[in-house]
Hints:
Blueprint lengths: L1 H54 L4 H16 L6 H20 L6 H32 L2 H5 L21
Helix pairs in contact: 1-2, 1-4, 2-3
Amino acid sequence: xxxxxxxxxxxxxxxxxxxxxxxxxxxxxxxxxxxxxxxxxxxxxxxxxxxxxxxxxxxxxxxxxxxxxxxxxxxxxxxxxxxxxxxxxxxxxxxxxxxxxxxxxxxxxxxxxxxxxxxxxxxxxxxxxxxxxxxxxxxxxxxxxxxxxxxxxxxxxxxxxxxxxxx
Length: 167
């Protein structure tokens, strides 16, 4: 009778560990998919920045800054492009305000797409940061550390540009 009770407890504990590991795996998958979505939006924003810099009459300094940031954010690895993403965010914010005041003539469809894309990026960043926070919180618990339920999965990274407020 005691052996059956011990076996039942061991089986339930093994099930709990398996369930917990699966849950953590799903959260890691959520981080990866939210990052892929955010990265796709950032790539689209860089392409839009290049399109704006080629179609609009910008002063040379603004055009250079916009083009350089867009190329770096499209071509470099994510660890190298955080500064470029921040610079691109500031440039796009400047362009939106300059277009609103009439200093720069940006075609309305591009301006509308820029506004929509900025809203989507802001929302995607908040979703990604929430997913990263969930994984960090779960992995900090004793049972996940002691039984190494994360396996060899790397801890998700927060990039510096994600903390910026994109306007």
